[in-house]
Amino acid sequence: MENKAITIIGGVNTDIIIKSEKIPQPGDTMIGGDYIITGGGKGANKAIAISKLGGQVNFIARIGNDPFGKKRIEELKRYNISTDYIIIDEENFSGLGIINVDKNGKNMITVSPGSNDKLNPSDIEKYRNVIANSKILIIQLEVRLDAIETALRIAKQNNVMVILDPTPYQRFDEKLLSMVDIIIPNQIEAYKITGKPAHHIETATKAGMILLEKGVKYAIITMGSLGALLVSDQEIKLIRAYKVEVVDSTGASSAFAGALAFCLANNYNIIPAIEFANAAAALTVTKLGAQTSLPTFEEVINFQKSMPIDFEERKLVTSTKEVKELMELSQQIRIDILKMLAEAGSGHPGGSLSIVEILVVLYKKIMVYNAKNPEWQNRDRLILSKGHGAPALYAIHAECGFFNKKELMTLRKYNSILQGHPDMNKTPGIDMSTGSLGQGLSVANGIAIAGKLTNKSYRVYCILGDGEIEEGQIWEAAMTSMHYQLDNICAILDYNGLQIGGSLTQVKAPIEPLVDKWISFGWYVISVDGHDIAELINAFEEAKQIKGKPTIIIAHTIKGKGISFMERIVDYHGAILTSEDCKIALEELEELKAKTNNVAK
Fold it and tell me: Radius of gyration of the chain from Cα atoms?
């Protein structure tokens, strides 16, 4: 019989989970909602995850001889997990976790390790044969590092695959990574291990490459609602997450790791294994509690069957008719951009393609304007601070009737109304001439202050480039926005991770943590998938409700979006497209548009 045994070395905790409107800040005392007391611990959660999927699991741990410990032993037995390798600690209390969960399902966890921290090398040696006879060993950092090192050496000596979930993070000798096959950090853990931010697919890729240099074979960086980024010598690929209503994200990482190990023990290839793990994690976050929410194999399979594998198709299937129509329009805008640039023989394709959905949502769903009267005083204003994205702005303006679509083919021509960067003196509907980076938010401030002084109800939208925010003027403007409490400003950051000189961290590190930086400047921050129409609509509507402070929407985007050979390639920031490039790109875009149109019907 094939060996499919998975051995886990980790912690067993009792979790006290409190639901509240938001997570308390230092010094806060707040009234929460309901609470539950349930089993937890990263090791125990993974053991139960694998068992519920139908896997064969061994669990090596220490637990206190106290009421909490006895309750956890009963639970493990109920999930058909052998407790033969769990050491009862007569001197130390069982581990305890205090978990705050906010209204959006995000959490903050504090753990008192108790007996978990007493698992030692002698305990590991006692069960040497259990590890040696396993197919996979899963470890996490909730037990002593000397015990972890002992387990790694035993696994290495016996050709056992090792998966490291570096949580809860504690500093360790990075030489140990040479004995790890797969590491699955989240964005924060990846940053702590590598020193490289991992909040965007581009920066996370750099962090993943460093992990490979340290000896791991596969780095799988979990990126929340974006999905999981696989970095290996063979490929770099973002496997997108499933979109679900989040209730509690506490058990997501354990569900992911357990499902991944289960699949690999059953000879799945790495990408199907990650897709299965994403599905398991998605199901887990729809319920409260880390262990009670873990799905069975049948539940995961049925969930996957209900959703197309292709991420774009999933979005189509789950979208409303209105959203599908805007998705179809986005593909047409991309086609127009490409034709414009091909005719001009120059321009900026990458950063134009990355902001298409943002502009489509603004002009077709959110902004108030009159295309026949572009100077209307009560209109909403849009400042394209990253002025090199002008082709995208021109394409949506033509679609909305600011000028005839025939003008698009005159881009960058002598006497054209459509120059390489927006010119408010030439082009109808342009609220500010831009191109010299870093100035747009300052202009937006002036327009927003004028609106406040004249009691106008218009809003000001300002699209920033992520490379652009390396300029100091942006941050001076950000302080000004908050100083004057400009809640009629909504900035949008085109966070595609690349600028003309390379990735953000190559040019000027560290740009992260972006969310925390903007919050520290007093802004309200919303993070979204910048290519998800529904998410963008919700974000802009939410921004309208914020009073007393400005809002920034950090839109995670892909440079060159929609064209396979352009996506995430920095050279297409300002590349001249060959006729063959244009032919292939247009074929891809037409195919995407047709697919969207078919589903929309």
Answer: 26
* Residues with Cβ within 8 Å of residue 149, at least 6 apart in sequence: 121, 173, 176
Strand stretches in 20-169, DSSP E: 35-40, 57-64, 86-89, 95-101, 107-112, 136-140, 161-165
CA angle (369, 375, 378) in 5-degree steps: 50
CA 415 to chain centre: 44
Looking at domain 354-575, which CATH architecture does it have? 3-Layer(aba) Sandwich (3.40)
Residue 343 belongs to what H/E stretch? Answer: helix 321-344
Determine contact, residues 383/462, Cβ cutoff 8 Å: yes
Phi-psi category of 514—alpha, beta or left, where left has phi over 0 and alpha has psi -120 to 50? Answer: alpha
Q: Residue 197: its pLDDT value, please? A: 81
25-43 b/e (C-beta count within 10 Å ≥ 16 → b): eeeeeeeeeeeeebbbbbb
Question: What is the pLDDT at residue 216?
Answer: 97
Model pLDDT for residues 245-262, shown as the tens digit of each residue:
888 887 899 999 999 999
Q: What is the pLDDT of residue 476?
A: 97
Give the helix ranges, DSSP H, for 101-242.
121-126, 128-132, 145-157, 187-194, 201-213
Is 60 exceeded by the pLDDT of residue 64? yes
**127: which residues sit within 8 A by CB, 6+ positions away?**
58, 60, 85
Which range is least confidently modeled, 89-93, 170-174, 347-351, 499-503? 499-503
Query: Residue 473 in contact with residue 442, Cβ under 8 Å?
Result: yes
* pLDDT at res. 26: 79
Instruction: Give the model confidence (pLDDT) of 326-338 as tens digits.
Output: 999 999 999 999 9
Largest CA distance in the chain: 86
Sign, CA dihedral 421-426-430-431, equals positive
Contact 181, 138 (CB under 8 A): no
Q: Does domain 6-25+35-307 have CATH number 3.40.1190.20?
A: yes
* Distance separating alpha carbons of residues 117 and 63, to the nearest angstrom: 10
Domain boundaries, the chain: 6-25+35-307, 354-575
Helix (H) or strand (E) holding 443: helix 440-453
Both tokens of 299, joined, read 């539940």
Of 264-268, 369-373, 569-573, least confident by mean pLDDT is: 569-573
Long-range contacts of 110-113 (CB under 8 A, 24+ apart): 111/11, 111/13, 111/142, 111/168, 113/11, 113/142
**pTM score of the predicted model:** 0.77
Phi, psi for residue 87 in degrees, rounded to 5: -90, 125
pLDDT value of residue 601: 54
Q: Is the pLDDT of residue 198 over 80?
A: yes
